[in-house]
Amino acid sequence: MRYLPHTDEDIHEMLQEIGLSSLDDLFNVIPKDCRSTRELNLPEPLTEWELNDHMDNLARKMAVPPEYKIFLGAGSYNHYIPEAVRQLIGRSEFYTAYTPYQPEISQGTLQGIYEYQSLVTMLLGMDVANASMYDGASALAEALLMAIRITKRRKVAISSLIHPFYRQVVTTYLSAPGYEVIELPFQEDGTTDLSDINILEECAAVAIQSPNFFGCIEDLKSHGEKIHADQKTLFVTVFSEPLAYGLIKNPGSLGADIACGEGQSLGIPQSFGGPGLGIFASKAKYLRSMPGRLVGQTKDKEGKRGFVLTLATREQHIRREKATSNICSNQGLCALTMAMYLAFTGGSGLRELSALNHDKAEYLKKGLMDVGAVIPFDTPTFNEFVVKFPPDYKSTYSRLLKKKIVAGISISSFYPELADHYLLCATETNSREDMDAFIKEVKS
User: Fold this and answer.
1) Is 371 helix (H, G, I), strand (E, B) or coil?
2) Domain map (residue ranges) of the chain
């Protein structure tokens, strides 16, 4: 922790420089009735070692790995991060880089974004990708706004199996302009129900997540064919676990017009919920309707390779009414982290890692079934899956927590009809011993 102390002499000198007599004078512009006159209720000062102990004690209240064995997913996933990525991303030229407003002196930053965009298009099977967005939820909202701009329609349909927080963000984004958001129900097998095709009439887009919030893999090809029966409706696919595309077919190969989601799994630590990485890609014909910015490759007058901001679509760069988004920046550091992670992992490494994640989750699923847990959805899953436990599982959950095992998350607050249903996740970070201990505790 760094301290920047100012002596009384320093403060006096700075006040003299700006023509003020006291620190309180800095706040004279704030009306008196808007200012607090009470003393701040702050604890007594601590020594450096006392403060370190205090912070350690606070940290011990958090159930985090490696001390705790975590079986949580639900949009944020615990994966190993190569040490090379940790070391490189901490270099000052990467760590302090900002938005490349001056491309001629930001070639390194622009090249990093260009490499990230290229890797995204390969991963998702899409034509073009932007320089990244804030997170998966805002990326989905921007994708639906993009579809509305393209089709000039004011209604969208989203699967109820899209992450609940993503759906909340979509509602926030689309409610103020008066756009209609329809939620599609789910079937008994844990996938989206598109049987009522009439509900899709006059929709700008239909959004479906795969793997969905239950971990189930949707039949995107079949969904896409139904959605494209109306030639104007766009097919938007969403994801919260992009590692799945090392094993299952990517959205582009299954007919997606826009693919977006969260990139946290690919080299970015969970960090108690953020920052994340909004991945956004589309077909080439929709390039000029994309939000955010896009870096392109060119040559200078000497024929040398160079990188430029090819598209920058926010209101600061072009006329306000022509802007396709007010997103102020891309997640540059997180995007570069993902690019490094994919470069170190490689295509074959990504496939092996995805298979390992799938197999670990299947091992845990089978073990729980063997001790009497019910798997309500028989659709193939990736990484995470829903389990129905007996009504007394809450006591088992508390017992497991005392033994430093975090045994999933109840989804009844998101889906009230699914009482006693829990979402569990297993990644490459969960050992067989940890999973066996979990299964043993459930059996007892």
Assistant:
1) coil
2) 69-82+346-443, 83-342
Return the higher-pLDDT residue of 321 and 290.
Answer: 290
Q: What is the dihedral of CA 175, 206, 355, 337, to 10 degrees?
A: -50
Place of tokens 């990736």: 382
Higher pLDDT, 382 or 273: 382
Q: What is the mean pLDDT of residues 241-249?
A: 96
Do 174 and 86 touch, CB atoms closer than 8 A? no
DSSP H or E run through 173: helix 164-175
Stated length of the chain: 444
Q: What whole-number distance in Å separates Cα of residue 76 and Cα of residue 408?
A: 12
Q: Which CATH class is domain 83-342?
A: alpha beta
Whether the bond between 5 and the residue before it is cis, its omega within 30 degrees of 0, is no
Contact indicator for 158, 182 with CB cutoff of 8 Å: yes
The overall average pLDDT reported for the chain is 92
What is the torsion angle, in degrees rounded to the nearest 10, for the CA atoms of residue 324, residue 325, residue 329 and residue 334? Answer: -90
Distance CA 199, CA 390 (A): 36
Strand partners, 237: 208, 259
Residue whose entry in the numeric block shows the structure tokens 């094993």: 247
pLDDT given at position 57: 92
Chosen CATH of 69-82+346-443 out of 3.40.50.1000, 3.90.1150.10, 3.40.50.150, 3.30.1250.10? 3.90.1150.10
pLDDT-derived band at 74, boundaries 50, 70, 90: very high
pLDDT band at residue 326, thresholds of 50, 70 and 90?
low
Q: What are the residues facing 77 on neighbouring strands?
A: none
Residue 378 three-state SS: coil
